[in-house]
Design goal:
- The longest helix is centred in the last third of the chain and has 21 residues.
- Helix 3 links the parallel strand 5 and strand 6.
- The strands form four sheets. Strands 3, 4, 5, 6, 7, 8, 15, 16 and 17 form a nine-stranded mixed β-sheet that branches. A four-stranded antiparallel β-sheet has the order 11-13-9-14, covered by helices on one side.
- The chain folds into two domains: 284 residues, Zn peptidases (Aminopeptidase), CATH 3.40.630.10; 113 residues, Alpha-Beta Plaits (2-Layer Sandwich), CATH 3.30.70.360.
- The mean pLDDT is 97.
- It is built from 13 helices and 17 strands.
- With 406 residues, it is an alpha+beta fold.
- Helix 3 packs across helix 13 and helix 9 packs antiparallel against helix 10.
- The radius of gyration is 22 Å and the shape is globular.
- It binds (2S)-amino(hydroxy)ethanoic acid and manganese (II) ion (MN) (2 copies).
- One manganese (II) ion (MN) binds next to loops.
């Protein structure tokens, strides 16, 4: 008798169990940020659910959680993803990979399958970088892709440093950093993730393997002008950084159009001091820029910086552009990718413009990704969706792959 995937109220049961955790009241969706209440609730849920499966759960020196099937050991097959979200993010970005991994192991255990090598489900911390500004912080720390001092000094909107937030949850700052023990145990990492574009809609397929990830990064653009009175300052006498920043943001779109398929976004802006009757002194805009190659992305950002600086100068302001996060382009191992695709009946390969922890690990261990169709084609939004049938197909695919690997 083939065990079935647990489903509750039209969802994978694991997703149903967390469906109300961290709902965002401003625009719907979810806001679940590292070491804040909603994400801590998800950490507790993950430990409890994995425990129910008989897995041994531990948190590593960088705040990543690991649920082990059997003893932790070398050459492990590791599945997983993340549980944190963007502000007002979708239900599936991250949690689908974690829930599907646990469900695939549940199917194998229910069938009496005994693995011949270690297996784990990992939940990486701060994948979205929504609280501390650097994407994939947990996997970058584990792999040494970010210096622990820099990571520990990252501060959130309230000025709380990551080191202090981590310490408050049992992770001493001196522990942060490359974790050769954890990395050395990974024989292969496979991340299942909801697709975040229209690829599987256009292919009319439920699943795909990942072929590549765009190069991408985040830059802080500070535009400084002259703070002044909104009523007493004549228009001709102003050096208004909000106007300069607005023109700069239009220039961002123009720069992204030059090569054809570059992507450049300003999704976040803040003004100091932020008074309705105050011409700001400084306006900060955060840029997310992405392109096919590392050099392309660097060129795109250099073009944006030049355009923004010129717009600021026209308004008597200055602009500074500071890199906050960088992820080079990723080509997933074609041999592993093909083996995965053929084991699953020849599913298609898809590139993605979205970053993932798998993109960080790909530089260190054999790594692959599985995408599950998102019929909305929308992500980082409450509109993000995956049907029950497609999510079940993802779980069954993971189970099939695990049978061949364990
Ligand atoms: O921003 C990204 O591409 C990912 O969702 N962290
Ligand atoms: Mn995301
Ligand atoms: Mn994600």
């Amino acid at each position: 008798m083939t065990p079935t995937v647990a489903v509750t109220a039209g969802r994978l049961t694991g997703l149903h169990e967390i469906v109300d955790v961290g709902r965002d009241s401003r625009r719907g969706g979810y806001s679940r940020h590292v070491f804040q209440p909603a994400e801590l609730e998800l950490r507790a849920w993950f430990a409890e659910r994995a425990g129910r499966l008989g897995l041994h759960v531990e948190t590593d020196r960088n705040g990543n959680m690991w649920a082990w099937w059997g003893e932790p050991g070398p050459d492990a097959v590791v599945l997983g993803s993340h549980l944190d979200s963007v502000p007002g993010g979708g239900e599936f970005d991250g949690p689908l990979g974690v829930v599907s991994a646990l469900d695939a192991i549940a199917l194998l255990r229910a069938d009496g399958f005994a693995p011949s090598r270690p297996c784990a489900v990992v939940v990486f911390a701060e994948e979205e970088g929504s609280r501390f500004g650097v994407a994939c912080l947990g996997s970058r720390l584990m792999t040494g892709a970010i210096a622990p001092d820099r990571a520990g000094a990252l501060v959130d909107a309230d000025g709380i440093a990551f080191a202090d937030a981590a310490a408050a949850h049992g992770i001493p700052p001196r522990h942060l950093g490359r974790d050769d023990a954890a990395l050395g145990r990974i024989g292969l990492f496979l991340e299942l993730h909801v697709e975040q574009g229209r690829g599987l809609i256009d292919l009319d397929a439920p699943l795909a393997v990942a072929s590549s990830i765009l190069a991408h990064g985040r830059w802080r653009i500070d535009v400084a002008g002259e703070g002044n009175h909104a009523g007493a300052t004549r228009m001709a006498d102003r050096r208004d950084p909000m106007v300069a920043a607005a023109r700069g943001i239009i220039a961002v779109r123009a720069a992204a159009a030059v090569r054809g398929d570059d992507r450049a976004t300003v999704g976040r802006i803040s003004a100091v001091p932020g008074g309705t009757n105050v011409i700001p002194s400084v306006v900060t805009a955060w840029l997310d820029a992405r392109s096919a190659g590392d050099d392309d992305t660097r060129e795109l950002v250099a073009d944006i910086a030049a355009r923004v600086t010129a717009e600021a100068a026209d308004e008597g302001c200055t602009a500074t552009v500071t890199e906050e996060s960088w992820s080079g382009a990723v080509q997933f191992d074609p041999v592993l990718r093909e083996a995965l695709a053929s084991r699953l009946g020849g599913i298609p390969a898809l590139p993605t413009g979205a970053g993932h922890d798998a993109g960080v690990l790909a530089a260190h261990v054999p790594t692959a990704m599985l995408f599950v169709r998102n019929p909305s084609g929308v992500s980082h939004s409450p509109e993000e969706h995956a049907t029950l049938d497609d999510t079940v197909a993802g779980v069954v695919a993971l189970e099939q792959v695990l049978r061949g690997l364990l």
